[in-house]
Amino acid sequence: MKRHLSYLSLGALLVCLTHVGSVFAVEVAPRISDREIIERLTGLETRMDAMRGHFEQRFDAVEERMDTMQEQTNQRFDAMEKRMDAMQEQTNQRFASMERRMDDRMDAQWNLTLVMIAGIFGLIGFVVWDRKTALKPLERRFARIADDLERDLEIESPGGSRLTRLIAAAREFAPDDPRLAEHIMKALERHSLSQELPKRA
C-alpha cells in the first residue's frame, strides 16, 4: 500500500515538472509601440469602413432589387386584378345580355300566346256571330218559302194540294180529248213529273 502511494506521488511530481517546464518555455514577444498600435487600428478602421460601405452598397442594391421585385410583383398583381375585373365585367355583360335575350324571348312567347288566345276567342265569337247572322236570313227565307208554298199549293187542304187537284182535273178532261191527254203527258215527261203522278182512286 505504501508502495502504491509512493508511486502515485512520484508520478504526480513528474507531471507537475513537465507543466512547469512548458510554462517557462514561452518566448517573450517584442514590445509594440503605441504608434504601431494606432496605425494598425487606423488601418483596421479604414478596412472596416470600406467593408461597411461595401456591405451598405450591397444591402442598398439588394433593397433596390427587392423594391423593384416588389414593384414588379405589385404591377403584375395589378395587371392580374385588372384582367380579372375585365373578365368579370365581360362575364356580367354576357349574363346580362343572355338575361335580356331570355326576357325578350319570354315576352315574345307570352305575346304570341296572348295573340293566339285572343285569336281563338275572336274566331269562336266570329263563328257564333256568323252562325247567327247567316242562319237568320236563311231561316227567314225558308219560312217565307214555306209560307209561299203553303199559300200557293194549299198543302193543308183536305182535298190535297193545288197541284194534285190540278192534275186530277186534267185527267178528268183527258179521256174526252186525246190530244189534250197527249200534250199533258208530254209536258209531264218534260218536267219529270209523269212517274210521280198520283194514282186515280
TrEMBL record:
Domain of life: Bacteria
Any coiled-coil regions, as ranges: 52-90
Keywords: Coiled coil, Membrane, Signal, Transmembrane, Transmembrane helix
Ranges annotated as spanning the membrane: 108-129
Signal peptide range: 1-25
Record bears the keyword Transmembrane: yes
Name the record gives this protein: Uncharacterized protein
Annotated organism of origin: Candidatus Kentrum sp. DK
Lineage, highest ranks first: Bacteria, Pseudomonadati, Pseudomonadota, Gammaproteobacteria, Candidatus Kentrum
